[in-house]
Design goal:
Helix content: 40-55%
Number of strands: 9
Radius of gyration: 20 Å
Order of helices and strands: EEHEHHEEHEEHHEHEHHHHH
Number of helices: 12
Strand content: 15-25%
Distance between the termini: 62 Å
Oligomer: single chain
Largest sheet: 6 strands, mixed
Shape: globular
Length: 254
């Protein structure tokens, strides 16, 4: 049965696209379920970070090709809904890529803040090989992730990156050896600093990262950061953590 599975590991939600017989190809229903799972995580004060993955053997083989054959704008946007929810998620996100991420599945991987790859990961734009123009903002995401030259290599010339080449290119943040369970466990462990941080501060900081990414000058970033930083100085979380740190310093051996 094709479905979106959600598991909680403390304050980290693991969202799995589950349709292994069809290599987790995105349908309208799966994309709607993925978008719903992201919204549920954002609305749950006990969730601080999100890991997105796919049931082996693939991460996500793209959009359901039978759907694409009859798709028009409304249908395409329905397929986009899942990975765009990840791209727009207010919480920190990690894509745990254990197999092929193709087409719209590549978009899903690109949509996350970082990508952690298993040894069988493969990143494949694929659109032109199908006679299809890229969609869902892929050309925007890939150029920001990899720069214009590598983006052209993957989009126009069909270059496919395995795990190690994705790591070297900066597409993957790290490679984890082992099976899918090990990959997901490592992604959850990587998310722990976010899980331990104040939730509102995480959201504010991710919002600031997006705002400052395109700013032309350092001074503009200082001005953008100053308001949320002042708000964090007045927060009870900062007061409690500062008091705890001062207590540790006071009681540490001389």
């Amino acid at each position: 049965m094709a479905e979106i599975l959600v598991e909680r590991h403390g304050r980290v939600a693991v969202v799995t696209v589950h349709d292994p017989e069809r290599r987790n190809a995105l349908t309208r229903d799966l994309s709607a379920g993925l978008a719903g799972a992201v919204a549920d995580a954002e609305n749950d004060r006990d969730v601080h970070a999100l890991v997105v993955t796919g049931t082996p053997p693939a991460f996500c083989a793209g959009a359901d090709l039978t759907l694409l054959g009859a798709a028009r704008e409304e249908g395409l946007r329905a397929v986009y809904a899942g990975f765009l929810a990840v791209a727009n998620c207010a919480l920190p996100t990690i894509a745990a890529v254990g197999g092929a991420a193709v087409g719209a599945g590549f978009n899903l991987a690109l949509a996350a803040d970082i990508r952690i790859a298993g040894p069988r990961a493969r990143f494949d734009a694929r659109f032109l090989q199908l006679g299809l123009h890229p969609g869902g903002g892929m050309t925007w995401m890939i150029q920001r992730a990899l720069g214009p030259q590598r983006a052209a290599a993957m989009t126009l010339f069909g270059e496919i990156l395995d795990a190690e080449n994705a790591l070297a290119a900066g597409l993957a943040h790290r490679v984890v050896l082992g099976d899918h369970d090990t990959l997901v466990a490592e992604a959850v462990a990587y998310a722990q600093p976010a899980a331990d941080a104040p939730r509102d501060l995480l959201i504010a900081t991710k919002r600031t990262l997006r705002a400052t990414r395109e700013l032309p000058a350092h001074a503009d970033a200082v001005d953008t950061e100053i308001v949320p930083q002042l708000e964090s100085l007045d927060s009870p979380e900062f007061a409690a953590r500062l008091a705890a740190m001062q207590s540790r310093i006071t009681h540490s051996p001389k």
